[in-house]
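Course assignment 3, question 2. Fill in each field.
Student: A.L.
Task: Predict the tertiary structure for the chain below.
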Amino acid sequence: MMRVVDATMRVHVLIPVFNRVDMTKTVLTCLRAQQGVALNIVVINDGSTDSTREFLEAQQDVTTLQGDGSLWWAGAIETGLRYVLPRADADDYVLFLNNDVEFKPDFVRNLVDVSKRHNRAAVGSIIRDKKPPYEVLSIGPKVDYWRLAVCDLLSSDIGQCALDREADISVSMLSGRGTLYPIEAFARAGTMRPRVLPHYFADYEFADRVRRSGIQLIVSCSTAVYSLPEWGSNSRRFGRWARWFSKGSASNIVHALAFWMLVGSTFQRCTAVGRYILIKMISNNVRARIKKIF
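Answer field:
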């Protein structure tokens, strides 16, 4: 049964894109099939060199914001927020969405329902393989602020239990691959920090700020986006220098250090540099010993 559209609020969907026009077509098809919710679709085209621009210009139900290729993810989201926030009402939501995902017609409405059930929480979705048998690829991040480590809840008993029950699970950070934020989150926590974190870590850092502002972070284990099992830097090849310093690398050490200096408690943020250096020294020493042994 089709749900009645809630006329009291809108969901502003922000989708950063760079090329991959076929994926953009697919995600827009998924959005147009959504039931029970009013959407304002905003695509931020960051200097695509394929036919993305021409395609988007023909979409009358999509607002397109143009970049020059220098925005990266955080800059694109920031550009989108500057556009939608002045136009949003107090009951609205903002959905961060990648163009390399697919989802069912009740996806957005389910996120809204979960948010309302938890006093307008920020809500993320699990990630499933888009190919049968649709295995779960990710539940959400599990963060060890002291050891400066992020792993996935999929590897934990708590995550598996929530997944088995299709429950809502409280988390300390959320990704940007299908995450809903109540509009008040931006008044409390601010927006992106693209100069410090232009791409990787930006979604986690923003979510951490939202959590510290008093808004709960939830992953809905009954709501999923469907994706290929590789994304981001996993599908790219970097040279040694680019791996450690490129904006497009998840292993960028400058961005990693900046990230840990911005998240967690005040004491954790203040001691992040020393702990980061110590952990790296210990890690390098262990690797050196292993090489001597073998």
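Instructor remarks: DSSP finds eleven helices and eleven strands in the chain. The longest helix spans residues 272-293.
Grade: pending
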